[in-house]
Amino acid sequence: MKISATVTLKKEVLDPQGKVVDQTLKNMGYKNIVSVRQGKYFDIELKETNKEKAKKIAEEICKKLLTNTVIEDYTINLK
Amino acid sequence: MKSSVIVFPGSNCDRDIAVALEKFQIKNQMIWHNETNLPKSDLVVLPGGFSYGDYLRTGCIASKSPIINDVIRHANKGGLVLGICNGFQILIETGLLPGVLLRNKNLKFISKNVFLKVINTDNQFCFNYKKKNIIELHIAHNEGNYFADINTLQKLEDNNLIALKYCDEKGNINTDSNPNGSSNNIAGLLNREKNILGIMPHPERLIDPLLSGIDGSIMFESLLKSK
């Protein structure tokens, strides 16, 4: 089964790279940009057919390695 | 006194710290990250550098190395652990110290000498700073901006677990003397038992007048006194 995880900085944590992208887009003329947050994206292939089990493993991976839960949030997508 | 310096792929201050330890007659061994058994040591040093190319998050992959389990066991038994720069980042990723080190506020790699105030001298690393508590050490990092939630910061202050704070020449701790945006000007932290110290500055770089200062020596002298 294929799953994906997106990791982003929590709202209250300053995201300097996102801020620079945000400002650059505005400078390029995209006046309707409200905000940009930069994150990380992981494609993970699992030897698992059970959706529930796959989700549980993905949660564990996110908590143990992919995110630092002090500053980051994650979302998991099952494909 | 016996020490072990853990070497990760991408460590680049491992030999500097080894030279410093040996200068102060501390018997040192270099331990590759893939080892699973830590030799008998009084002190374990996690050196500065860019372990695993800073992949994922600084210090993150190193914190899952095979040797780290034994380092954690050593720490939990009360053994001394010193994390310098990337070593501090690794200690945070292992959960041995709280909070997180974010990118510097100005988004630049900072490499310069800074002034620091030794806030807690009541531990084996900083004991000798009692005679001189405003010191100059070198920093060289991109992710040294210490961040923790308000409750954690309060606990660190209340329990006197902040070892070092950035200051100016006169010891003033304020925004102007904060090089990287760290909360409360934090440059170094102790755990509750005070056997683990994580610091962004490099004491091993200032152990000889030829290298622009000797304030780093005081830390090694303190360690020697502890055993």
CATH-derived topology of chain B = Rossmann fold
CATH architecture of chain B: 3-Layer(aba) Sandwich
Low-confidence stretches of chain A: none
How large is the radius of gyration of chain A? 16 Å
How far is the first residue's CA from the last residue's CA of chain B? 7 Å
The structural class of chain B is alpha/beta
Structure commentary:
The complex is a heterodimer of chains A (79) and B (227). Chain A is of the alpha+beta class and 79 residues long. Chain A has a single domain, classed as Mth169, Chain: A. Helix content of chain A is 35%, strand content 28%. Chain A has 2 helices and 3 strands; from the N terminus they run βαβαβ. Chain A has a 3-stranded antiparallel sheet with strand order 2-1-3, with helices on one face. The mean pLDDT of chain A is 93. With 227 residues, chain B is α/β, with parallel strands linked by helices. Chain B has one domain: Rossmann fold. In chain B, 21% of the residues lie in helices and 26% in strands. Chain B has 5 helices and 11 strands. Chain B has a 9-stranded mixed sheet, with helices on both faces. Chain B has a two-stranded antiparallel ribbon with strand order 5-8. Chain B is globular. The model of chain B has no long low-confidence stretch (mean pLDDT 96). Chains A and B meet through loops of A and loops of B.
